[in-house]
UniProtKB/TrEMBL annotation:
Domain of life: Bacteria
PANTHER family given in the database record: CYCLIC DI-GMP PHOSPHODIESTERASE TM_0186-RELATED, TWO-COMPONENT RESPONSE REGULATOR-RELATED
Domain HD-GYP: 171-364
InterPro entries per record: Cyclic_di-GMP/3'3'-cGAMP_PDE (IPR052020), GAF (IPR003018), GAF-like_dom_sf (IPR029016), HD/PDEase_dom (IPR003607), HD_GYP_dom (IPR037522)
PROSITE patterns noted in UniProt: HD_GYP
CDD domains found in the cross-reference section: HDc
Name the record gives this protein: HD-GYP domain-containing protein
Amino acid sequence: MHARDIERENAGLRALLDLGAQLLGAHTLREVEAVLTSVALRLMHSRYVYFLSVTPMQDALIVTHSAGESDPPLGFRVPRGQGLTWQAALNGREVLMVAREQIPPTAVRTPGAPDQHLLFAPLYTSHNELLGVLALGRVEPPFSTQERELLLAFAHAGTVALERAREAQKAAEAQENTLLVLGLAMEARDYETQGHTRRTVKLSQQLGRALELPKAALDDLRQGAYLHDLGKLNIPDRVLLKPGPLDENEWALMRQHTVTGENLARRVPGVTSGALSVIRSHHERWDGRGYPDGLQSENIPLLARLFALVDVFDALTHDRPYHAAIPAAEALELLRAGEGTQFDPALLQTFLSVLSEEGTGPQA
């Protein structure tokens, strides 16, 4: 083997190692696509690289990620059977290489784009399912046979990473649905709190983003919001649905729902410790007079302090068995009255800002 061939082979191996290392850090479909396009652009010396995802509902290929000089915009749609991209997709697993002087009239062209040498690599699973097509172009020089083989290896690595990301996404969606069903089970017992689960999930996420919480904390918060009232499934209807004030024994029973909920949630696969803290501690108070543990100020977990605001606001502004809904402006005044006693003062100010931006409360 000549020295040039050895160097070319070594360069290809280095490129695959680089791709593999970056794909290990890609956890979502879009992250995998970003790695494929950016690495291919750099290592294949292309003018552009596009990833076109299959959209079965539209029976089309759609540009979902790009790197380099962008001709078709993200969302550009290629209907089934049209252009070289579909030709490559429907011809099997091999990479289609087209010299710029051989581009057929039927090719899908972007106005103003120069004629280019093209490579198209379809990504097929082991079950022969098309995931998408990786498309490369450059004006000069023409792509070589070695580059075509390297792109084929890229496509194989990308397929594995996309399948892994898709399975992770399915697992996350399944868990999300499980958490939602458990939250809705509570609502099924108490028809006057319909929508409470979804509303508190949405509003707590808005507050978390306003506080610039990291993704992991937002995930914990979302899980906790779904499951915060899980323990009420163990509360008898005579107490849970009582239209009037609870007596001392009934309140003692009601207060158990946070600990019961935490214990039940521990049995749900994937529920995080952060979510458990929301379930257990969202009825603690800043002044230490809450339950179940009588925690005070910053000893209360941050996510529980945050969620307490959301939970109380939604409870006040929607009908419950023991009270009718009150206007948002009145609810905000009650929240302000609890500053430094029931609620974390700093979090309360942020929450009021979020509600103001959403148009829920009066403008400051």
